[in-house]
Amino acid sequence: LDADNYETDPCLKEIRRAENYSWMDIVTIHKDKLPNYEEKIKTFYEEHLHLDDEIRYILDGSGYFDVRDKDDKWIRISMEKGDMITLPAGIYHRFTLDENNYVKAMRLFVGEPVWTAYNRPADDFPARKQYMKFLAEEAQ
């Protein structure tokens, strides 16, 4: 995606239309830009899940999303300017900055945003059970 022209990027516009991403905002994660920076960084790095998909589009900077594979082992995903990721509801994950300690990201949602993170263990939520069912089906 064209992060330098995200406001007019036709590819982003089409993704938002196709996926019904009707709400968005932009967050800058940097010690000079984010209130309660140290606390927020620790919260982002706590292993958790959400009941809705988590969609992030990196407009500047870089960082890592860590996700659990089907064997419950970590996979690190490097994210940089122009990258977009969708983490499905129910997947355990965490986020951390890299050595640059800076990322500017667009957060996208279907409908109103839901910010609630459920720290592990959170296996009883329907979203988690649905995600685990999806993994089992993919393994067959």
TrEMBL record:
InterPro entries listed in its UniProt record: ARD, ARD_euk, RmlC-like_jellyroll, RmlC_Cupin_sf
Keywords from the named record: Amino-acid biosynthesis, Cytoplasm, Dioxygenase, Iron, Metal-binding, Methionine biosynthesis, Nickel, Nucleus, Oxidoreductase
Pfam families, alphabetized: ARD
GO molecular function per UniProt: acireductone dioxygenase [iron(II)-requiring] activity; metal ion binding
A biological process from GO: L-methionine salvage from methylthioadenosine
GO cellular component, one term: nucleus
Membrane topology: Peripheral membrane protein
Reactions performed catalytically: 1,2-dihydroxy-5-(methylsulfanyl)pent-1-en-3-one + O2 = 4-methylsulfanyl-2-oxobutanoate + formate + 2 H(+)
Principal localisation: membrane
Residue ranges crossing the lipid bilayer per the database entry: none
Descriptive protein name: acireductone dioxygenase (Fe(2+)-requiring)
UniProt source species: Fregetta grallaria (White-bellied storm-petrel)
Gene name of the record: Adi1
